[in-house]
Amino acid sequence: MAILVVIFTLQNTLEITINLFFWEIQNAPLALVILCCIALGYFVAVIYLYPRIWNLKSENKKLAKANSVLDEKLTTLQARLKSEEDDNPLGIEMGKMGDHFSLFNDL
């Protein structure tokens, strides 16, 4: 990145005059003016968007906490369901019926 900045600076050595309201800055290097404008734009964007980023981070923390609570509840319900299935199996086991054997289980 530093190499690109150096190349950009060497290629834009033109000196310009900047007029801003009542101020006049003479002989300012074009590369310096462009880089300052980029930096200023970055800082304005950060200052403008920082409250939104802060809100999104706090919302993310709340949702992560709610997600962990729901995961714990899901684990508890799955364990309860598994224990109920073990206690009350679905279906009927078929055993020997007289002289004939059943098709399902030979007990």
Q: Alpha-carbon distance between the termini?
A: 77 Å
Structural class label: alpha+beta
- Beta fraction: 5-15%
Q: Could you give a short account of the major beta sheet?
A: 2 strands, antiparallel
Find the count of extended strands (DSSP E, 2+ residues): 2
SSE string: HEEH
- Give the C-alpha Rg: 37 Å
- Tell me the count of domains: 1
Q: Total number of helical segments?
A: 2
Indicate the overall shape. Answer: rod-shaped
Share of residues in helices: 55-70%
Question: What does this protein structure show overall?
Answer:
This protein is an alpha+beta fold. The protein has one domain (2-86). Helices cover 64% and strands 12% of the residues. The protein has helices at 2-11, 30-87, and strands spanning 15-20, 23-29. The protein has a two-stranded antiparallel ribbon. The N and C termini lie far apart (77 Å).
